[in-house]
Structures are given as structure tokens and as C-alpha cells.
């Protein structure tokens, strides 16, 4: 009797296991496996049928592990990639010891690590895998510092000589890798046949050997005729990034030493006015940060150096009439071949910002004694207030001839008329007006998207606190209450606000229930005055303060910041 029960349990469990195994197999493979009643026998048939594929996979892994070579992108990632291959061999009874893996990693390193490998070989100590990673990363940083911030690796960039679209500008400056030979033409510099003067290695060495001209870009401006000045081009012959528009820069500095000028292909020198970092938004949304970009107003087009991109960890892959920009094994940008050069595809926002100054070669500098400049710096205040600041010697003597009608002031004051007539209180801290402004479409660089104000009804003196959530209203009010009551030794009598959930409470099926802010006012004996729903003018003092702050921010943003970056600095501006 007990045997029959156990047999039924086993049979039921066997059927369940068999169903689970079959559900995990693809339908296209399931039909090729012979049927059987026992799940153990079914698994054995699967194992016998697919054993051959595991051997093939093991052969591929071993071949890939032995032939793996480090070609840039971070030595830590390279070592971890080899370790991952070795770990996949262990379930196949082909495990590799740590000592053997260390030697495989050493053999995969480039010639820049030769001294490092020699030191390891003569040392009696054996490294484990963790110590290998740490020492290799340290050696990589040392090599980068000695080579000016990067390691140079030779990459194979062979082209199809028969393809007419395979001509790239790099052939002009690497004669040993030219894609075709010019046999009938004679160089005007060395008098040898087979290349032009612009491709002559002796001519290029002579130019680069001149004193003070180490920073050189080889640019042929004739290729750019018919294209906008705001376009960006991938230039394998340029040793620097160059831009003709200063407004696109995120930060700038003055030139130092040999950075003061560059030499172009026609032999003329061009003056460099500034050096800085410049973000470029590519067509797919990726932001490419170009470092140490030279601001050269006389250039007809903007240039991106292939060698500088390689130093920063990017990979340019040329072929089929295009150049793909790769980073961290992902394609981030594309440049198409136009008149033997590669035009980078950018976001429409970049072209809009760049076109704003396409006719300007230099940014006009405003005089420090300009009243218009101080009008903008001080949040577009009135002329009378500026004159009082000059009279009190807070500002230097200013020239008021340029202070005409301000367009930003007119735009920022387009508001709806407000009914007035309320009376002020008789003393400070009798009535406090509060309101929250936000959230804004774009958060500030600190992550804030709103701010809360507390304004005294008598003195109109106010406090502003940036916030990330409306639930922070009570915390900011506690900070404000503790400060003002301690400084003036007077208690707050009344708090006037709208009927928002952050002030009054949340809505329920039975009505609005007082929340933490309302209960805090009740516990501290402070009278809460709420405006009628749909009537914001009843909280007019706080609303007007918010509009004044937003108007100052809009005018400052319109006057000083490009449209693409102004929103993110709203918190700092306020």
C-alpha cells in the first residue's frame, strides 16, 4: 500500500519536472529530442545531443583568450574581459589557473608595458589577479602622464584601394599609408615624384620644426566652400580642436605659450584668442565634450582633431564614405563624406545656437563703466536706483548714454493687472506671506526645481529657500521661524498662504484634512489664513514677489545666456 502511494508521488513529480524542462526549451529544438517517460533519461539525451557544441564553444574561447590584445580603452576593462573568458572555461573542465592567466595578460599588453613586464619577470614575487589589476592600472597612469595624458596605440585602418569613396584626409599627412600613388607629379619641395608638396614629409617636418609652432593644424579652406560656418568637420590632419564661435564654449581661459597662434595649410598664421571646453550635442542625443578647444575667429569652419579624440578614449572608424565615432563599444556619432572631408551630424539645437553668431568674428566687450551693463548685472533695476548706488559710492561713476529702453524689461513685465487695496500690518512678523513657485521644466544644476518665499507684510523683507519637493515647505518654515523670532525677539502672529496641499492638507472623500503644516501652526498658536480656491490675488504679496523674482530671472537669462543652457542655471540666478 505504501509502495503504491510513493509510486504515485514519484510519477506526479516526474511529470512536473518533465513539463518544466520542456517549457524551457525552444520549440524549434524540442522536436529534435526523442521522447521518454523519465526526466533523468530525457536530460541525458539532451546532454548527449548537444555535447559537441560545448566543445566548439570551448575552442572558440581558448582561441579568443590566447589571441586577445590590448588596444586601448582602459587596461582594467581589458583584464576583466580576459578573466571573464577564463571563467567560462571552468564549467567545461578546462579551468585556467591564476598564474597562467597572469602570464596571458602580460603577453597581451602592448610594447609600452615592456619595462613593466621585465620588472615582473625578474621579481621573485608572484602576483594574484587583484594585484595584477592594481599594478597594471598604476602603470597605465604612469605611461599616460609621461606621454602627455594618453597612450598611443597603432591601429590598423586599411582602406579598399578600389573604392573611390575611401579617400580620407589622413592620407595627406601619413605618406607611408597612402591609398594611391601619384607617379607622374613632382613635389615642388623635395623635387621627388610620387607625391605633392602638401604630402611631402620633409616639408611637414620643416614646418613643425619652426620655433613656437608646435600647435599646428593642416586645413585646406577650399574644401569648405558652400557650407555654413557653424558646421563641424572631422579632420585627421589637425592636431587641435578649433572653433570660430565663442558662445558655444562652456568655459574659457587665456592662451599660454605656444597656444597663441596656429598655422594652416596655406602657410599663414592665425591668432588664437582663447582656449576652453566645448560640449557638442550629436544627432543621437549624446553630448561630446571637446577639451582644450582653440577659439580662432578667422577659421571658416569648426574642426575636430582625430588625434585628440584618440587621446580622450574615442575611436574613429573610417569606411564606406562615412566616419563612425565610437566610445565604450557603442557608436555615438556619425560623419558623412563631403568633398573628401567628413561632416559631423549634430543636433538641430547646436546649429541654432551656432547660427546666432555666424556673422560675428569677435565678441564685443562691454565697458565696465556702462550703465547698461550694471543694469543687467543687478537684475534689471531702474535708472533711479543705479544713480543712488553711484551717489552712495557703491558703484563707480557710470556712463548713462547707453541706458536706453530695455527690451528684456518690457518682455519680463507682461503681467495681468492686480487689484490692490489691502492694508499693511502695524509691525514686523505680524503677517507672513508665503507661496511656492515651481516646478520649472528644467531642474537647476543642484537638482532644485522650485523655491519657497516668506515675506513680512510690514517691512516687505523676504526669504527665499530652494526646494526639491513641496513637502519641504514645513522644514523651510521651521528654519525661517527659528531665525526671525530669535533675531527680533517677536513671535509670528499670522501666516497667509493659498489652500495648497503643502499648506492646508490633503483631500479625502470627506473633505480636506489638515496636514503637518497646518497642525504645526495650530500647535504654536499661529493663525493660518488661507486664500479662497481660484482666487490667487488674495495672496497677492507672495504672488507678486514670485513674479518679480521670475521677471528678474527671465531678463537676466535672455540677456546673458544661450537658450540651451539658461534654464539649468535658474536656481543660481534667483
TrEMBL record:
Residue ranges, compositional bias (Polar residues): 165-176
Top-level taxon: Eukaryota
Residue ranges annotated for the Integrase catalytic domain, each copy included: 423-574
Record's keyword terms, sorted: Hydrolase, Metal-binding, Protease, Zinc, Zinc-finger
The keyword Cell cycle is annotated on this UniProt entry: no
Coiled coil (residue ranges): none
Region (Disordered): 148-176
GO molecular function list: nucleic acid binding; peptidase activity; zinc ion binding
CCHC-type domain segment(s): 187-202
Xref: Pfam families: gag_pre-integrs, Pol_BBD, Retrotran_gag_2, rve
Keyword Zinc-finger part of the UniProt annotation: yes
GO biological process, one term: proteolysis
PROSITE patterns assigned: INTEGRASE, ZF_CCHC
PANTHER family, per the entry: TRANSPOSASE, PUTATIVE-RELATED, TRANSPOSON-ENCODED PROTEIN WITH RIBONUCLEASE H-LIKE AND RETROVIRUS ZINC FINGER-LIKE DOMAINS
Stated name of the protein: Retrotransposon protein, putative, Ty1-copia subclass
Amino acid at each position: 500500500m505504501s509502495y503504491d502511494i510513493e509510486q504515485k508521488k514519484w510519477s506526479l513529480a516526474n511529470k512536473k519536472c518533465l513539463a518544466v524542462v520542456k517549457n524551457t526549451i525552444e520549440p524549434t529544438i524540442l522536436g529534435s529530442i526523442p521522447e521518454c517517460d523519465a526526466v533523468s533519461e530525457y536530460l541525458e539525451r539532451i546532454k548527449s545531443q548537444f555535447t559537441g557544441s560545448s566543445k566548439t564553444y570551448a575552442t572558440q574561447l581558448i582561441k579568443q583568450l590566447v589571441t586577445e590584445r590590448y588596444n586601448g580603452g582602459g587596461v582594467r576593462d581589458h583584464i576583466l574581459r580576459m578573466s571573464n573568458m577564463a571563467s567560462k572555461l571552468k564549467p567545461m573542465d578546462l579551468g585556467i589557473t591564476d598564474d597562467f592567466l597572469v602570464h596571458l595578460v602580460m603577453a597581451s599588453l602592448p610594447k609600452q608595458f615592456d619595462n613593466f613586464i621585465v620588472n615582473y619577470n625578474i621579481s621573485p614575487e608572484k602576483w594574484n589577479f587583484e594585484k595584477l589589476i592594481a599594478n597594471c592600472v598604476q602603470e597605465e597612469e604612469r605611461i599616460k602622464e609621461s606621454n602627455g595624458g594618453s597612450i598611443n596605440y597603432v591601429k590598423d585602418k586599411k582602406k579598399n584601394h578600389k573604392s573611390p569613396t575611401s579617400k580620407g584626409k589622413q592620407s595627406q599627412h601619413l605618406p607611408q599609408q597612402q591609398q594611391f600613388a601619384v607617379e607622374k607629379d613632382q613635389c615642388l619641395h623635395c623635387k621627388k615624384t610620387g607625391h605633392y608638396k602638401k604630402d611631402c614629409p620633409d616639408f611637414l617636418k620643416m614646418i613643425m620644426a619652426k620655433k613656437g609652432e608646435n600647435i599646428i593644424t593642416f586645413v585646406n579652406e577650399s574644401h569648405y566652400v558652400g557650407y555654413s560656418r557653424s558646421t563641424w568637420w572631422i579632420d585627421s590632419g589637425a592636431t587641435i580642436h578649433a572653433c570660430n564661435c565663442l558662445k558655444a564654449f562652456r568655459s574659457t581661459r587665456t592662451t599660454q605659450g605656444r597656444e597663441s597662434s596656429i598655422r594652416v595649410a596655406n602657410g599663414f598664421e592665425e591668432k588664437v584668442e582663447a582656449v576652453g571646453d566645448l560640449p557638442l550635442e550629436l544627432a543621437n542625443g549624446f553630448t561630446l565634450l571637446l577639451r582644450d578647444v582653440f577659439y580662432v575667429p578667422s577659421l571658416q569652419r569648426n574642426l575636430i582633431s582625430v588625434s585628440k579624440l584618440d587621446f580622450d578614449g574615442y575611436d574613429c572608424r573610417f569606411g564606406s564614405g562615412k566616419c563612425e565615432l565610437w566610445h565604450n563599444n557603442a557608436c555615438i556619432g556619425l560623419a558623412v563624406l563631403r568633398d573628401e572631408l567628413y561632416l559631423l551630424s549634430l543636433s538641430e539645437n547646436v546649429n541654432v545656437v551656432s547660427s546666432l553668431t555666424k556673422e560675428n568674428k569677435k565678441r564685443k566687450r562691454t565697458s565696465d563703466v556702462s550703465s547698461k551693463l550694471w543694469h543687467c548685472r543687478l537684475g534689471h533695476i531702474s535708472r533711479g536706483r543705479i544713480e543712488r548706488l553711484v551717489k552712495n559710492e557703491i558703484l563707480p561713476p557710470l556712463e548713462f548714454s547707453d541706458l536706453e529702453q530695455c527690451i528684456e524689461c518690457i518682455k519680463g513685465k507682461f503681467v495681468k493687472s492686480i487689484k490692490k487695496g489691502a492694508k499693511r500690518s502695524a509691525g514686523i512678523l505680524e503677517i507672513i506671506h508665503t507661496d511656492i513657485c515651481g516646478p520649472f521644466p528644467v531642474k537647476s544644476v543642484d537638482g532644485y526645481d522650485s523655491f519657497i518665499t516668506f515675506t513680512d507684510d510690514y517691512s516687505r523683507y523676504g526669504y527665499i529657500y530652494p526646494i526639491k519637493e513641496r513637502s519641504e515647505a514645513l522644514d523651510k518654515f521651521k528654519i525661517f521661524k527659528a531665525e526671525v523670532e530669535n533675531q527680533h525677539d517677536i513671535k509670528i502672529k499670522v501666516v497667509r498662504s493659498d489652500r495648497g496641499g503643502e499648506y492646508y492638507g490633503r483631500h479625502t472623500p470627506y473633505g480636506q484634512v489638515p496636514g503637518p503644516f497646518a497642525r504645526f501652526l495650530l500647535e504654536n498658536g499661529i493663525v493660518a489664513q488661507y486664500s479662497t480656491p481660484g482666487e490667487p490675488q488674495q495672496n497677492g504679496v507672495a504672488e507678486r514677489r514670485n513674479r518679480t523674482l521670475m521677471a528678474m530671472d527671465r531678463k537676466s537669462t535672455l540677456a546673458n545666456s544661450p537658450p540651451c543652457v539658461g534654464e539649468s542655471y535658474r536656481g543660481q540666478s534667483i
